[in-house]
Amino acid sequence: MDLTVVIGIEILYAVASLALISVGLAVVFGMMKVINLAHGEFMMMGGYATIVSVNLGINVFVAMLIIAPVVVGLIGLVVERLVIRHLYGRLVDTMLATWGLSLFFIGLATIIFGNTTTGISTPIPGVAIGNYQINGYNLFIVVVSVLLMIALYLVLGRTRLGLIARGTMQRPDMASSLGYSPERIYMATFFCGSALSGLAGAILAPLVGLVPTSGGAYIAKAFITVIAGGPSLIAGLVSSASVFGVIDQIFTFALSPVIGEVALLIAAVVLLRLLPQGITARFFRGRM
Amino acid sequence: MQGTAGKDVIVTVLVAAVLIWALPLMVGTYTLTVLAIYAMLGLSLGLIWGFGGILCFGQAAFFGLGAYTYAIAAINTGESTLPMILAVIVPCVFAALLGAMMFYGRLGDVYLGVITLVVTLILFKFISSTAGPQYTIGTARLGGYNGIPGFPTLNVPGRPDLFIWGDALYYLCAVALLLVYLGVTWFLRSSFGRIAVGIRENETRMSLIGYDVRARKTVLFAIGAAIAGLAGALFANWGAIVTPGLFSLSQSAEIIIWCIVGGLGTRFGPLLGAAGLGYLKFLLGQQSMINNTMLMGLILVLFVLFLPRGVVPAAISVWRASIGRPRRAGRAGALRRNRRRGRTDG
Question: Average model confidence (pLDDT) for chain B?
Fold first, then answer.
């Protein structure tokens, strides 16, 4: 019984963390059709922002939930102005340019922080369930991810700002003739996407030893989760994160964590072959 | 056409012979060997991306697969002839299967990129996790992160005690590169090559004319992988060790950077990009002021933004505009337009 609860929580955590690491990429890709291959490095920078702030004596939750997203959002803003802005509508070129950016940021982080592992301890103690001890921080990640999805849904679906953003993504010419500047909306969207990446990186930072190349561990998972999700932003993200998270955890429990990851990646390849437009192109059509 | 083809081959061989002879006077053969291998690897992606329009984010997978195949087979057989052949065949068959799965599913650019990237990662993760003694193929232990050291290196066929190493390995790699280059040239002149370029330009049109686009793309993809596998096997010989790092994303990124910098849609561009940037990396490795990765990233961003056609096509068009006589429109320009269209496919 206890084991069932523990496995249930682990699966929930796997799904939540997949959704969390993909949300920044999903906003940028889903809304702007720009694939940001530097997403993993944005997360890595979010992690470093948190660790530096905590070492300076700032409360860890302030550092994670406020400082990291703002810092990474601002970096994203600079990147959008200098690079991405020139490449809208050229999908392959944005992929290449952001891949270049990802290498650039890895190099930069190596110069600043050195090629060593840094980390902070998890701020939440473990929880005992029967005979088992689980990481309390995992529950925190589940809560944050759920709140984030709800917030995203409310902002995009229920506010005027979200309406304008969605409208611009569908028909920039129409939005601009109604008096909204697509340029500024793209900029703001990219800022939000980067900030979400930074937030995800910051929240995961206490769980991993951070090195400048940490981003590489996230990018592939985030990438396949978003692509497999398909056109609907939130429904796609939740559905593909659920599929992959469950597969990952089942194989992890049955065999080993490495097999779990490999199973996840193989599942992604199979899924993309069967549903090349993503899950939500066939199911949950027209949702957000 | 036959006359110019013959002349081109003679010119290529002569220029290559002079370069192969002259370059060791300036740079050590140990470095030149790896540059020739990189050039071959660059050419393999240059072929499928520049002429077939297939953007593969995982060319390193075939490179690594070739290297590992060579190492494992060499340990098991104790000589190098059969392993070299296997190192070409295994990546080729693997790519044919992978390609068939992707192209018969009619996946778009982005999905192709994701799948090739993911496959590279799967291989990386799997090979990295094989440290335990239970992971053996024949008598070869896979060795996880540490890779496989100490396999027999290249020997004269039929004489397992006569090793090819040092200067001889350099000449072998250089000649292999020349042969691959000539092979690619011949391939692009053949009707198959011309149809591949046609598919790159307009897939729908080619399939309406009646060509089986899916089969042709699969074959092209497999040929590219075979070349990458050969490069991998030579690399294994040069380094005398194979590690999972061969499958890494940074290796894949590097190959793409070579092609972008050198110039897509040319045969010489990726070759030059690979050798040039490889040498730059070698020079940068001797100092610690500038971080290598950072510089590579910067180069990629700047090229995508300001010189997306690459060095060689740009140089050719400058030359033509200034002194050369105007000829038919450059292939690179057409590819560029094609890429610029930036299909999203959903």
Answer: 85
